[in-house]
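Hey, can you fold this one?
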Amino acid sequence: MTDKSTILVNFDGVIYSYKSGWTGIDDLPDEPVEGAKRGIEQLRENYNVVVQSTRCSQPRGIKAIEEYLETYDIKVDGVVYKLPPYLLFIDDKSITFEGAWDEDLLKKVREFKPWYR
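Sure. Predicted structure:
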């Protein structure tokens, strides 16, 4: 990797459409999320893009993701399980912490639904 800042991108639901839900650590039957390849290409002009996934807890999960990215010609700067230092994380299951553990945050947690649900 270069000296660029790193953007971490979650795999399931952000690159991989996850329409079939969980079908196994190395089973990836669904197409990519529309625009994922182009978006990552644009990010890589200024950042390192590293894919993170709990699938990477096992070598076969890492291999499945790498093969998936290769199949769809999606180029990234790494595939990891543990989080490296990063500038920002793109994920389908996250809430931005805005500095306060207040009712607004707790309400966001209670009402949260990923984009594909």
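The longest helix spans residues 59-71. Let me know if you want another pass with a different chain boundary.
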